[in-house]
Amino acid sequence: MCGIIGYIGNREKKEILLDGLKELEYRGYDSAGISILSNNELFTFKTTGKLINLETKCKDFTSNGFGIAIGHTRWATHGKATEINAHPHSSEESSIVHNGIIENYLEIKNELENKGWTFLSQTDTEVIVHLFEENLKSVENPLSAFKKTIDRLNGSYAILLITKKAPDRIFYAKNGSPLLIGINGDEVFFASSSTPLIGLVKEVCYLEDGDNGYINKDNFKTLKNVQPMNGEKISSQKDGYRYFMEKEIYEQHRILQDTIRGRILNDGISLELPSNFIDNINRITICACGTSYHAGLSAKYLFEREAKIKTNVIIASEFRYSNPIMEKDELFIVISQSGETADTLEALKLANKNNLKTLAICNVENSSIVREAKYSLLTRAGIEKGVASTKAFSSQVMLLWILGIYIAQNKNNISKDSIQKQIKNMYNSLKATKVNTKIHDRLKKLSKRYLHGHGFFFIGRDVFYPLALEGALKLKEISYLHAEGYPGGEMKHGPIALADSELFCVSLMPKHLLYEKIKNNTEELSTRDATICVISQECSDVADDVVLIDKYESYMEEFFAMMIVVQILALEIAIRLGNDVDMPRNLAKSVTVE
Ligand code: F6R
Q1: What is the 545 CA–ligand 1 centroid distance (Å)?
Q2: Which CATH architecture has domain 239-433?
Q3: 366: Cβ below 6 Å to ligand 1?
Q4: Residue 475 CB partners (closer than 8 Å, separation 6+)
Q5: What is the CATH number of domain 435-594?
Q6: What is the pLDDT of residue 232?
Q7: Residue segments in the chain with a per-residue pLDDT below the cut of 50
């Protein structure tokens, strides 16, 4: 999704902006631009498509000496992905970049048009820069004009503005969209996430909603809540893999060791939560989006089965506006890889407002969701670059499983023997995520038979139903083929009408959970001539193709082994179709608008 970079200092500003935007590239965008104000001249370059186009466009431009600069990658919301709609947007003497959505932009636009302002773009953002210049006519200084402008905006925003009227400073405002200020000596950086700042700055300040003002070389020392910048530069190397997604699939067995570190002990589960964490909690609500929602759905089965605690799972965008009933004895869990998903963040704020105990399961330390939640547990998957989530999902499921057993243990709902059995299954599940290259080769070959047809159904029961949803989501995200996940038993209540030889059905058939039931459901589809691909540790006579996983002793081991298969199946189909696996069309890695 949209990304922001800003810089105040003496270095070559173009390079700083382009390098920063490259670090944000994996998040998804469709156009990009930069504005640099140096020696009282404002230079703006914008292009559609990849950053290489922007680099080419400004290749002969240099800016020596002190200056201020802003850059942006845009994921279109208002107006198509054109050069004119790309940020920065400029008025006569100022330029602006913006993440988020200005909800009352049409009203402001009408007012400004009546006053003679002309708009070039179809964006909501352009109103901000013209409104700022309009306000400059009636107030004494740029800061007052900026504050007056911000006061007028409804919606979510992270904004940077530069103006010839104050060429030593960057104006900023944050509400609902993340924005950080990084400091290195007397240089100041801005970014919409910490990734571009790692290695560049020593200290960072995470702005809060409602913060606005300006920063220049003199006043940044007065910033409050400055903290040391942690984190290591993410490897931008694919390490021999064809795509980051492929690398991340192969990494899973290693990162899961980090997920469980210090949490699975010889005599039980230990989590970084207070000992009375679960006291007075009698029910759980889990709220998330996309893949994280699927992880939440698997947790429902685990929590209810193992911890015997009622669990409700809801998509964050549905939760917000449904006047949800929130009870005092409810634990509210949000799950998010990025920690910045707007719908999830807003749902969390609502739960906090209602005084619920809130817990974030998140991959990014210091993200908005971690900072908003009362408690948090990190999944420790490392930064995920492929837009289609893989290792984030496995680390979420593993951590939620651990949390389920932790709750069972602390509520005395589980015997010591059962805890030991669960721990053994957890270790074995971790091993089950190590990619078996023979299975990968088989999927590579098999993928050529699944490039056409009128759709895919992934079916599973119990925890394999959320895995079916996740398998279908992976496939549609990167192959652009239509795919749905369904509970196996539900097909005959409607979707089976679609069954014919051009309907592909990927059936998740675990030996250790409801095997006969899902086999019957698969047979019902086979009888109606659907093309069946079974994933199982057992051979199957109802299948057209069988992907045999290794032999496992518990259903969760089968879950993690089958997860690898559906991820690789999607990857290989997408590669055969010639798609950009890491940056699929229309998608963004971090969805910071609702
Ligand atoms: C799918 C995917 C998305 C995200 C969703 C939530 O591969 O990545 O469905 O899972 O946008 O994002 P987070 O987990 O960052 O809140």
Answers
A1: 30
A2: 3-Layer(aba) Sandwich (3.40)
A3: no
A4: 456, 458, 481, 483, 566, 569, 570, 573, 574
A5: 3.40.50.10490
A6: 62
A7: none
